[in-house]
Specification:
This protein is an alpha+beta fold. The chain has one domain: Thiol Ester Dehydrase, Chain A (Roll), CATH 3.10.129. The protein is built from three helices and seven strands; from the N terminus they run βααββββββα. The strands form two sheets. A five-stranded antiparallel β-sheet has the order 1-4-5-6-3. Strand 4 and strand 5 form a beta hairpin.
Length: 149
């Protein structure tokens, strides 16, 4: 069995991510974080994100975000995003996210998401099956000094 490790995905910075100054407009990072979570579900956890919502009627909205914008990113750059689970609670997860070029970390965030029923809009417990999948991505912290290869 592999050691727990962050899920990683490269994301190009596109025109629609940028403001008139030519850098990522900071709310767009939250869109990119959500895309990363969706990629992680589909590719890392093996859970079809669309089915999770439409059929299973579950969601994982953000309940809390702590974010540091460390350096600007510009259109045409490709950022290497990483996501790791730092805590699995009864109904919530704490996720560490960062995005970097080969030279520097540009943004770092801690996201708290809650597993909710889309029908009742109330938190629901993390199932043992989901917990087992999440545990493959539990790491204490993402080391900000480690750069993408």
């Amino acid at each position: 069995m592999n050691s727990p490790a962050p899920f990683a995905a490269d994301k190009p910075i596109r025109f629609h991510h940028c403001d008139p100054a030519g850098i990522v407009f900071y709310p767009q990072y939250f869109v990119l974080f959500n895309e990363l979570v969706e990629d992680w579900f589909n590719e890392g956890l093996g859970i079809d994100f669309a089915r999770f919502h439409a059929v299973d009627r579950l969601g994982i909205p953000m309940a809390h975000v702590d974010c540091d914008f460390l350096s600007p990113s510009a259109m045409g750059e490709v950022l290497h995003f990483r996501i790791a689970v730092t805590k699995i609670g009864k109904t919530s997860l704490t996720l560490a996210v960062d995005a970097a070029t080969k030279e520097e970390v540009r943004v770092r965030a801690t996201l708290t998401v809650v597993l909710v029923s889309l029908d009742s809009r109330r938190p629901v417990p993390v199932t043992s099956d989901l917990r087992a999948k999440l545990e493959r991505f539990v790491v204490p912290l993402i080391d900000p000094r480690v750069r993408p290869a």
